Fold this protein.
Amino acid sequence: MSHITKRKSSMKDIPTIKKACKRTGAEFRGIITKGRGVTGRSAQIKFDSWHHPVAINLQSGECSFDNYGGRWGKEELLDGFKQQYAVATAETKAESNGQAFETERLPGGAIKCTVAVGGSSGPSYDTGGSGTSSGYGV
Amino acid sequence: MAITGPRIEITVDPKGQTTTEVIGVPGDDCKAVSAEYEALFGDVLEHKATAEAYEEPEEIEIKAEQGGK
């Protein structure tokens, strides 16, 4: 490997939010601009067992919610939603690039997404000294 | 079929944080390879180069596997 980058979760894409809703059983309630804890244009989602919906600010990608310290909704559900959002994000990008993509659930609950560099059936990835990555489609 | 050649591995932890690793791509090319994916996720919490990042790219061409759709 050549470098490792760790990033916090951020959710800004509506189609991917909808995809994560389907995967986790959350209800997508639409786009709102006002409401409890809402700042700016936000996607509203609702977990069955939560008392109140979660607002996802589409500019910052951050969530606002009131689950009363877990009494009104288990935060694990939201964490799982964030995880599925990230997986769906990588999957969608790989598909649009024509790159092979696979996932594997790891012990401890993490999900490993693997993306082939150069695509599944596309052109080659050239590691020559030109400093370009011609097969990557950038 | 497992992906074994040059690849990007994105590990999403149970809280949704992502760790991106580029494998099999030496030198500066690794940055270009992963930039498109990393831009999709949130703010950087940590970044570190590994030994492979300092290797000179070899004058070889790695062909993506064909067929077996």
